[in-house]
Design brief:
The chain has 126 residues and is an all-beta fold. The chain is built from no helices and eleven strands. The termini are far apart.
Length: 126
């Protein structure tokens, strides 16, 4: 059973930085895409970034491109989301997700991801 555990959320001032981690276990992830989504109060869960576990190819939403960086550590089975120049609009619960067959064409939609973490809160104060 795939398990995803996020950590690293917190409260930060606008312009600050955070790094989220997603520890993955329970499977071999070579064919997987790993994604980050976020959900703000009263809003739909939206795509943030994703990475092919095998190739390292990445995909970003327009709202975070140039500010956020997704990466993975194959030895630690961990995916990271580095977030810089944070804005109050980035405030949300951030979720890690895994798509078992997404390593070639990286998916950007929620329905493509089969496994989800419990989420970690990121709050950016103005």
């Amino acid at each position: 059973q795939v398990q995803l555990v996020e950590s690293g959320g917190g409260l930060v001032q606008a312009g600050g930085s955070l790094r989220l981690s997603c520890a993955a276990s329970g499977h071999t992830f070579s064919t997987y895409a790993m994604g980050w989504f976020r959900q703000a109060p009263g809003k739909e869960r939206e795509f943030v970034a994703a990475i092919s576990w095998s190739s390292g190819k990445t995909s970003y939403s327009d709202s975070v491109k140039g500010r956020f960086t997704i990466s993975r550590d194959n030895v630690k089975n961990t995916v990271y989301l580095g977030m810089n120049s944070l804005e109050p609009e980035d405030t949300a619960v951030y979720y890690c997700a895994a798509d078992p067959m997404g390593n070639i064409v990286i998916p950007r939609t929620r329905i493509s991801y089969d496994y989800w973490g419990q989420g970690t809160q990121v709050t950016v104060s103005s």
